Structure prediction request, 284 residues.
Amino acid sequence: MKKILGVILSGILCIFIANSAFAASYNTSTNWFDSKNVSHLNTIGQNIVKANKMPATVIFKVTDNEYMNENNTNTTQYVYIYRGDLQYVENDNELAAVVAHEIGHLVNGHYSKSSILNNIISSFNPNTKTENGTATVGLLKTISSNKVNKDNEKEADITAVDLLMTAKYNPLALISVVYKSDLAKNGGLLDENLSCEERIMNIYDYTNYNYPAKVKENYKTDSYQSALNLIYANLKIRNADSKKLEKAKKEQEKLQKDKLKRIRNMAKSTNPWSAAYSVMNWSE
Prediction:
């Protein structure tokens, strides 16, 4: 019996070591176009879509074009993952976080909405052929795009948290990736559209409100622990102010109501990602 148990434990240990070795190979110089890495990306992606009862026929592809999914809104044939985001991945949880965030954009129909908004703005000004008209429309598009992009990122993040939890990945990995990405791109400086701090707090608050046990479990990577310093600093300020504390609570309550509204609208959508997501969430 001891020998059998020893063999089983050895097998489990070998699997764990193999998985850890693969995860440890993720770094900024990882070749994500390599067939082995693309295959593993698809394994992670399939875990997410199957667990969330979404179209399992999708193929995940790596691309250098971060806008590739904009023309891919009403199909479940491919989902493109931007290589620039993958360079901040260290393990499978973080790989899943990047994939889930992209699916979050597709589920919420963000690419289609942005295209429709720009078309509406263009139609407001009949003189877009003139220099002043073109400049005005361009400015309106920039202002609206900044606001929409900010809201879309936050919405995709919290959708990703739900997708990751259902697929049994750690949603805190998304905070880890966001933190590393911001540090690399902006050196910790605030982004003009959505700051790293605001995005991290959005993910943390949503996860803590809906999945408190997962937050208590922690996520032990250096980047997440560094992000916690930022989170705790914000929480300390908030907890010392009853108005800010109440505001944070109401924001989370509003997110729940907004989620139900989105799911109701998704049920009527021709977007296959939205339709699948609404079925999954109404059945819970």
Remarks:
- Residues 131-166 form the longest helix (36 residues).
- The CA atoms of residues 76 and 185 lie 31 Å apart.
- Residues 104-282 form one domain.
